[in-house]
Design a protein that fits this description.
Number of helices: 9
Largest sheet: 8 strands, mixed
Shape: globular
Oligomer: single chain
Radius of gyration: 18 Å
Strand content: 15-25%
């Protein structure tokens, strides 16, 4: 029996414009709770940004943020795993040295804020503000007001993102680089992924992974989908994600995850 559902955000739960039907989720959550099912959001976005997007529901849901680096349940952090200063400085140097990397900036995602160095293009900064909250522009790395940096993100082109990601994987033995969109990658500790976050959430809730159901569309959802009891991909998912899914549903723009969960609680009620 499913006790926890975890859904990716971009390309899965959210429409392509980054929105979702809040009224519909507000009606759904009590029905999930009645059925004994916990709703979790799982994303590469920062916890600050996810909290802002789901601020009306934080006391009812779980969150797996930063691609599995940070886990929150009912507003309380239950697990975190971060890069050390020497590690994130080396990651920054390797991103700059990456032969497939262009002129895109880098963002450091922390607990209090997200940080981008001065001189980064305004277009990149605006793009990152869509996915991260409290974006700070700083002169040097030393001005980051953080004890914890969970991950770093940067952009490539559609044609070079997989090559750039593979190059960083080879260059950074303690870190892993995953694609989070069709031109973006996140770099974090090698043990960290959404499946890792899901495992820690299950431990905190005393649940088995067999009692979970996960929705996703992109490479950074792969470990979560493969370790969940049931894996579901959206119609717009990458072919590699569809290949590991137990079931395919509609496009993210049709709010297919909400549709699936509404049917699920109806079936539970009967």
């Amino acid at each position: 029996m499913i006790k926890l559902v975890a859904t990716d955000m971009d390309g899965t739960f959210l429409r392509e414009d980054g929105t979702y039907d809040k009224d519909r989720l507000a009606r759904l959550l009590p029905k999930l709770q009645e059925a004994g099912i916990i709703f979790a959001v799982s994303s590469g976005r920062s916890l600050l940004a996810i909290n802002r997007l789901f601020e009306d529901f934080l006391d009812q849901i779980a969150i797996i943020a930063e691609n599995g680096s940070l886990v929150q349940y009912q507003g309380r952090v239950v697990f975190s795993d971060a890069l050390s200063k020497s590690q994130y400085l080396e990651v920054a140097a390797k991103i700059k040295a990456n032969p497939y990397h262009g002129s895109a900036g880098m963002l450091f995602s922390g607990q209090k804020a997200s940080y981008i160095l001065e001189g980064t293009s305004p277009a990149y900064i605006e793009k990152m503000k869509h996915y991260y909250a409290n974006v700070q522009i700083i002169e040097t790395y030393d001005l980051m007001d953080e004890d914890l940096i969970f991950k770093m993100t940067t952009s490539f082109t559609d044609a070079t993102v997989l090559l750039g990601s593979d190059w960083l994987d080879q260059a950074l033995p303690y870190a892993t680089a995953v694609t989070t969109g069709f031109d973006s990658i996140d770099v974090m500790l090698s043990e960290v992924n959404k499946g890792f976050g899901l495992q820690h959430l299950c431990q905190a809730l005393d649940l088995s992974l067999n009692q979970t159901l996960a929705f996703g569309d992109n490479f950074n959802d792969l470990q979560m989908l493969t370790c969940a009891g049931k894996a579901i991909a959206t119609a717009n998912a990458r072919p590699e994600i569809k290949a590991v899914a137990d079931e395919l549903i509609g496009h993210c723009n049709s709010q297919a995850v909400l549709q699936y969960l509404e049917r699920m609680v109806r079936d539970e009620a009967h």
